[in-house]
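Milestone 3.1: sequence recovery, worked example.
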């Protein structure tokens, strides 16, 4: 079970999936911050580790600390602008794999629930139909048993904790989620959420590229 008050990120070499003159693609391990937190004890992060190997690297997006999987960094300001614009225009495609509590009643579905930060309980997010920002997630069941279901999640928007809150809202929290799971769903060694694929247009020429890392669970 994850202790959110203890930061003990995994050590080991940077897992580089691909790099060229414009971008670097890495596989982020679960338990490592994407960017530094507040305080020296939270300085170790993927951004710093990538910069140690690729000094010109620039941040484009983030994954939650306890989520693993594919992340892209830019190596030039042009690449950063180019890919940031793709994210803003929802031209990138991302898929995640998660293990969730219980059995979903259907094989596929879509969650459309607006999200906003739960200020008294930050960094938690919550559904709010009055002031929340649009959040859309498509999901598809891969397989299930009596206890859990493996699903592929396809977010159409990129809100903070979107997949985690949406699955909880369905009544099927992601296993091992320290913020949104409870009871038996919490008794896992990590958050069972993994960024499996990322598709984007390469900033040099605009050709479509796709990067995939199978989940480690």
């Amino acid at each position: 079970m994850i202790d959110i008050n203890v930061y003990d990120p995994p050590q080991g070499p940077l897992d580089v999936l691909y790099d060229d003159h414009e971008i670097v693609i890495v596989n982020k391990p679960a338990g490592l911050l994407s960017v530094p937190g507040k305080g020296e004890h939270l300085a170790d992060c993927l951004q710093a580790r990538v910069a140690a190997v690729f000094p010109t690297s620039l941040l484009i997006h983030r994954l939650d600390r306890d989520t693993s999987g594919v992340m892209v960094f830019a190596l030039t300001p042009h690449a950063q602008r180019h890919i940031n614009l793709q994210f803003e225009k929802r031209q990138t495609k991302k898929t995640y794999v998660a293990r969730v509590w219980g059995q979903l009643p259907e094989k596929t579905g879509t969650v459309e629930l607006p999200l906003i930060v739960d200020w008294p309980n930050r960094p938690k997010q919550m559904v709010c139909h009055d002031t929340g920002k649009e959040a859309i997630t498509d999901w598809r069941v891969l397989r299930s048993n009596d206890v859990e279901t493996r699903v592929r999640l396809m977010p159409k928007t990129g809100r903070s904790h979107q997949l985690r809150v949406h699955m909880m809202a369905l009544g099927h929290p992601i296993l091992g989620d320290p913020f949104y799971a409870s009871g038996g769903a919490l008794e896992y060694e990590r958050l069972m959420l993994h960024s499996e694929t990322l598709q984007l247009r390469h900033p040099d020429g605009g050709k479509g590229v796709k990067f995939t890392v199978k989940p480690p669970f």
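The chain has a mean pLDDT of 97. The helical segments are 46-53, 77-88, 162-169.
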